[in-house]
Specification:
Blueprint: H1 2-25, H2 42-108, H3 114-140, H4 142-169, H5 174-190, H6 234-285, H7 291-313, H8 316-340, H9 352-362, H10 367-383
InterPro entries: Chloroplast_duf
Pfam families: Chloroplast_duf (PF14476)
Protein name: F-box family protein
């Protein structure tokens, strides 16, 4: 029995060791668990699509932002170039004109024969060259071109900041992208870069304000009960209405009057300069056939230099563009107030307090000064008098 037990123990121990060896030899590695994704609910799918759409609109708006930044740099560089044109052409034409006038004086002082012919020919050629250069310069008005590019640079920078603010405050929508695109193209149209074919008319028949914003989209006017909501109230609407009246009767009217006056002065000088150099060229050709020819040539040349210096040195074209831009600013302010007050219901309007603050800042006033202006305008209607104050304190 002892031997059987011993053999049994031996067998059991050997069988255990064998079984362990077999198990170790044939052990199969564990397969990784495969987790099947749960089916997305319709809500999660919609959220993912919205996220993708938000990413797309942000990418579009960033693309417009890059284009606007590029335009800022282009208009800045071209503005500096055209300002240099004005200085260089002004100095060159004046030097040519005065040199030609000096030659006429020397020729009339007693020169004869070949020297007289050389002086006459040289002065006539110089006066003719000055006439041609003046015609081109007066046509393109470099000082006005430079002011256009300065205004375009400022407005594109303003648009750049608006797009940055939109991206910083919230996720942009397709409407934001469309609005930014329309504003960019409107600025491109208002301030073209090329000279040939697309240059703004420098001598229009009537003075018109600059327009650099897209046409507002018409929206059906909705009736609503005026109440304190979204920062708006009946008093605020009346205040904005009075501000518009002051802008129309005082600021816009004054800048249109000054713009028309500057345009007329510029037209007269643009014609007078080449006309005087042309007369001087004709007079220089007859030097030696009487004292009157030299007198006409020298006098016309001196007057031409004076007119040219006053027109381009005084940058009358730039003044015209400044008035045109200022009149456009007031027109834009009028349209923004007109379209905000009656055109939208209270819930869709810009916040009333924010809108009032923006109008006050654009006019260079504090909120209390803006309200005092509206109060004065309302009082003038009652008494039948005219308000003696402009809406803007900036310019």
């Amino acid at each position: 029995m002892a031997s059987l037990r011993a053999s049994g123990l031996l067998f059991s121990s050997s069988s255990c060791s064998c079984s362990k060896g077999i198990n170790a030899a044939i052990s199969v590695p564990k397969l990784p668990r495969i987790r099947f994704p749960a089916t997305k609910t319709p809500l999660k799918l919609v959220e993912e699509l919205n996220l993708r759409n938000g990413f797309t609109t942000s990418a579009k708006l960033y693309a417009i932002l890059e284009a606007v930044a590029d335009r800022v740099e282009m208009h800045k560089n071209i503005g500096e170039q055209r300002d240099n044109w004005n200085k260089l052409l002004l100095n060159s034409i004046n030097m040519i004109t005065l040199t030609a006038a000096t030659m006429v004086g020397v020729a009339a002082g007693g020169a004869a024969g070949a020297p007289l012919l050389a002086l006459k020919l040289s002065s006539t050629l110089l006066f003719s060259a000055a006439t041609g250069m003046l015609i081109i310069m007066n046509k393109i008005q470099p000082s006005q071109l430079a002011e256009e590019q300065r205004n375009a640079t400022r407005l594109f920078k303003q648009l750049y900041c608006q797009i940055q603010t939109t991206l910083a405050l919230r996720d942009p929508t397709e409407l934001d992208v469309k609005d930014a695109m329309e504003k960019t193209l409107a600025l491109d149209k208002a301030y073209p870069l090329p000279l040939l074919g697309k240059m703004i008319e420098k001598f229009p028949e009537n003075f018109e304000p600059a327009v650099w914003w897209p046409k507002p989209h018409e929206s059906p006017r909705k009736q609503h009960k005026t109440q304190a909501k979204n920062g708006w109230s009946e008093d605020l609407e009346k205040e904005m209405g009075e501000v518009i009246e002051v802008i129309k009767r005082k600021d816009s009217e004054d800048y249109m009057r000054l713009g028309n006056l500057a345009l007329k002065v510029n037209k007269i000088m643009a014609i007078s300069g080449p006309l005087l150099t042309g007369i001087a060229a004709a007079g220089s050709a007859f030097v030696g056939h009487g004292s009157w020819a030299a007198i006409v040539a020298v006098t016309a040349g001196a007057l031409a230099s004076t007119v040219n210096t006053f027109e381009h040195g005084g940058q009358v074209g730039m003044v015209v563009e400044m008035y045109r831009n200022s009149a456009g600013f007031f027109k834009l302010l009028e349209e923004s107030i007109d379209s905000t007050i009656p055109g939208k219901d209270l819930e869709k309007r810009e916040d009333g307090e924010m809108f009032e603050m923006n109008v006050a800042l654009k006019l260079g006033r504090s909120l209390s000064q803006l309200r005092d202006l509206a109060r004065k305008s309302s009082t003038s209607h009652v008494h039948g008098s005219t308000i003696d104050e402009f809406a803007s304190k900036l310019f």
